[in-house]
């Protein structure tokens, strides 16, 4: 077993924001447990790839258990994995509901529950534990051009849960925050869409992956910040 001072568990880590977060946490000196449905092993011995669909019961706890077996602890969880389906409300199917709530809600619940239990039971670190959850600014700034009630249903709940956990565990040294995103340049979008999507943001551009990583790492290194919903959305939540 390899031991290390700090360990971050990142879901949805195979591409886009998740892969960049793995690199960001490694630069901070963290070991990383990287999860996605299908993720390849890393050449970096301090990055442990753990495949698994967190929308399935029991997978979240298995990932945390594997992290502890390999690195001895879990200090941070970044709940990055998520499913976003934009369509009119009455067009959503039962399969859509199961897919979105499975990953966005069950995945958050099972990974975070197991991780917090581990954080509470392991040797105390003066920097404490940390949960960071990736959300969307659409929760607070709905847009008729992007109908996405399932995103609001699930991510809105995660915003509320992030605040609740911040208060519940503040005295136990565990912080909880969320990062609410606007449109970010990732494989989720076609390059031809970005000019149109840029117009959704007052700053006139879409976000870059580095914008998200910088926000998450700020929260990681800000011990007096908890219960925060940090908007990384080019001013979208402020108005237009």
Automatic annotation (TrEMBL):
<dbReference type="InterPro" id="IPR036291">
    <property type="entry name" value="NAD(P)-bd_dom_sf"/>
</dbReference>
<comment type="similarity">
    <text>Belongs to the short-chain dehydrogenases/reductases (SDR) family.</text>
</comment>
<protein>
    <submittedName>
        <fullName>Dehydrogenase</fullName>
    </submittedName>
</protein>
<dbReference type="Pfam" id="PF13561">
    <property type="entry name" value="adh_short_C2"/>
</dbReference>
<dbReference type="GO" id="GO:0030497">
    <property type="term" value="P:fatty acid elongation"/>
</dbReference>
<dbReference type="InterPro" id="IPR002347">
    <property type="entry name" value="SDR_fam"/>
</dbReference>
<dbReference type="GO" id="GO:0016616">
    <property type="term" value="F:oxidoreductase activity, acting on the CH-OH group of donors, NAD or NADP as acceptor"/>
</dbReference>
């Amino acid at each position: 077993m390899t031991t290390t001072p700090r360990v971050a568990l990142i879901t949805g880590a195979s591409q886009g924001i998740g892969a960049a977060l793995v690199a960001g946490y490694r630069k901070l000196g963290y070991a990383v447990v990287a999860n996605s449905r299908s993720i390849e092993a890393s050449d970096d011995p301090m990055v442990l790839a753990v495949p698994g669909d967190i929308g399935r019961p029991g997978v979240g706890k298995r990932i945390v258990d594997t992290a502890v077996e390999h690195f001895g602890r879990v200090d941070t969880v970044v709940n990055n994995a998520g499913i976003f389906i934009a369509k009119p409300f009455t067009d959503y199917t039962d399969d859509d509901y199961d897919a979105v709530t499975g990953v966005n809600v069950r995945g958050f619940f099972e990974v975070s529950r197991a991780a917090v239990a581990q954080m509470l039971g392991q040797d105390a670190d003066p920097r404490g534990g940390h949960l960071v959850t990736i959300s969307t600014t659409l929760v607070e700034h709905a847009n008729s051009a992007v109908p996405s009630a399932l995103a609001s249903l699930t991510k809105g709940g995660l915003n509320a849960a992030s605040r609740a956990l911040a208060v519940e565990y503040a005295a136990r040294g565990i912080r909880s925050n969320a990062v609410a995103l606007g449109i970010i340049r990732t494989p989720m979008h076609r390059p031809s869409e970005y000019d149109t999507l840029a117009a959704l943001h007052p700053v006139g551009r879409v976000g870059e992956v580095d914008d998200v990583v910088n926000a998450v790492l700020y929260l990681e290194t800000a011990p007096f910040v908890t219960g925060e919903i940090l908007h990384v959305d080019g001013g979208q939540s402020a108005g237009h």
